[in-house]
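Do me a favour: review this protein, sequence plus structure tokens, and tell me how the chain folds. Record follows.
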Amino acid sequence: MKARNWILVSVMVFSLLLAGRAHAAPEYTLKLGHLANENHSWHKGALKFAEEVEKLSGGRVVCQVFANEELGNEMDTIQAIHTGIAHMVITGESMQNWAPKCALIAVPYMIRSAEHLQKVLDGEIGAEIAKEVVEKVKLRPVSAFVRAPRNLTSNRPIKAPGELNGFKLRVPNVPLFVKVWEALGAKPTPMAFSEVFTSLQQNIIDGQENPLDLIRSASLYEVQKCVNLTEHVYGWIYLAIGEDFFQKLPEDLQKAVLEAGKAAQAYEHELFLSNIAEDERFLKEKGMEFVTVDKAAFAALAGPAVEEFLKTKPADVLELYKKIVSLQ
């Protein structure tokens, strides 16, 4: 009888221990910040990462996702990771302040197509850039999200660089973009994106350049008639975790983080592809004309301007640029 009671007590204690573990607080809570809104594929990819890492870690790791720069802008969040306040970020060419090769994340006419971009990311070149991010930025990329290509908008079709002479073009405050559009014959004007709609409406500028999703979300179809398919920048952005924090994780949780990153990348890419098609359909319905351009002519003029700019960077950046351009 005593033996039976002992067994019952043991079973009850074991059950209570299991229940306690099931409801125990997670061992690690990650804070992930980014600049996109809740409808963007980057945010949904980040949520997928959070879902997967919690599942793969058995609840030992949870991830809180903060959109709309709630943790601060991109640079603020990277600094917060370095000081241990935050843990993850979605970031791209801004990292060139630490890692010069990150300047290659968004270079006009360096990458020819989505297929070319995927070869860069999946091969030795992508690994080399990611390695520099780990070593110099102290961030470990766990996913690479492909960005939609940037296209030129205007109120008349523009098929060749010669048609850009005197064209007042809004560009972001990126020195390389200014140099390239000057070489193409335009008059680039750096301007905050928040000012673009009104400036187009008032004819302060003639056009701007951005991916289709931003053209749509900013309602630029109301003040521009044409999407000229220059596709001048194919780039990507990383979902990354602080390297110092990552190295402190047990090996099994490091594996969970990396596997969750792969799942998030695959999921976000599916969303990205469907969004591009949907954005094009939407803009056409709003009356925008999609214009095929002579991309080879644009690229021929942009290339020398890019190389001249990259000469201001360490020599291995220009060498890597040439490798990317020649990759078949």
The first helix runs from residue 2 to 22. The first strand starts at residue 28 and ends at 33. The radius of gyration is 24 Å.
